[in-house]
Amino acid sequence: MSNQTALLRPATIGSKSFSNRLVLAPMSRTSAEPDGTPTAEMASYYAGFARGGFGLLIAEGAFVDANYSQCYGNQPGLVTDSHEAGWRTVVEAVKRENGKIILQLIHAGAVSQFVERAFAPSPVRPMGEMLQGYGPRQGPYDTPGELSVNDIRAICSAFVDAAKRAEAAGFDGVEIHCANGYLLDQFLTPETNLRNDTYGGTLEDRLRLTTDILSMCQQKTSPDFLVGVRLSQAKATVQDYFWPNGLEDARVIFSAVAEAGANFIHLASDKGGYTYHSTAKTGENLTAFARSLTGLQVIANGGLQDIGLANQVIADQLADFVSIGKAAMLNPDLPKKIASGAPLRDFTFEMFKYGVSVNAQLKWEAEQRA
Ligand SMILES: Cc1cc2nc3c(=O)[nH]c(=O)nc-3n(C[C@H](O)[C@H](O)[C@H](O)COP(=O)(O)O)c2cc1C
């Protein structure tokens, strides 16, 4: 038994209990059927993390409507009966391993690599280039069209319908993706939201679509079903972004999502890792602040396969859970390894040499064994 005891302590969110504080971070593996239906391969992929001891899995971002929400080819969706049936198979496989699983719901907005013409809060061309390894499109982003108020209301309804389908499919909850430069974060970010209607202007107005989605999802699902939110400062294509007014912005954002009924806050990081991205421009630790301000359960993220640091984050009560992304792909049994003190396999971008899909990973792993 290792001495990482804080990480291995059980915890709760709302009425749900979790065997430990280790969460699988959502990771888009673009392994669904071309129409977005989750596959049997995805069911066995997610079941592997439950068998490996993760207290909670957050499944990759599923697109929420057939209009402009899809980010990538072969991304799973949750719009049709076929999507719902595919996800039910995933959930059942995870439950057979006594796992808990939440589905992330996402709208790509301006950074879709899938739709012919992307739509966003304002016609602002995203910085950076489309993500490599994802398709079908590559290269610089185009300037998106501007969403009408009716489009925005339809997007809110699409998130709510997807949350209802997620509950019907057996998920323990949903995570609303308002991070990393995707649609809801485009609304939140002043540089990409130039609107002067009710969805733009003050930070509260820029948060309105997210808070509407959170409160409607809570109202339209049962009290046991979790509705959380993922936030971040960094964008997938702009690493060095920090909320411009530091702690003051954090206060408004965390209070608003708590007020809207979020059950948890998941603060995402990127290449700079937890310590870098979860620090406000004004210097404060944001997961600890979110926790003390709202009393909600908070999930920390970013490079926390550094198990000493991850354990410290929990032991020092900076967060309630830690989510693990890249390292989990090569260590689906990471919690069991922590418990036994076994070494972790080091993540390497080499594993994406055939692509980011589960199948591409299996091909690379077979090559490593040969
Ligand atoms: C292949 C891959 C796919 C990802 N897809 C998503 C996603 O669908 N939704 C999301 O919020 N974050 C996504 N992320 C970000 C991770 O959830 C996580 O925040 C990031 O990898 C940092 O955590 P880590 O240092 O433990 O890897 C993805 C990351 C990777 C490597």
Automatic annotation (TrEMBL):
SUPFAM superfamilies: FMN-linked oxidoreductases (SSF51395). Keywords: Flavoprotein, Oxidoreductase. Residues 7-343 form the NADH:flavin oxidoreductase/NADH oxidase N-terminal domain. Pfam families: Oxidored_FMN (PF00724). This is NADH:flavin oxidoreductase. It comes from Roseibium porphyridii. The lineage of its organism: Bacteria, Pseudomonadati, Pseudomonadota, Alphaproteobacteria, Hyphomicrobiales.
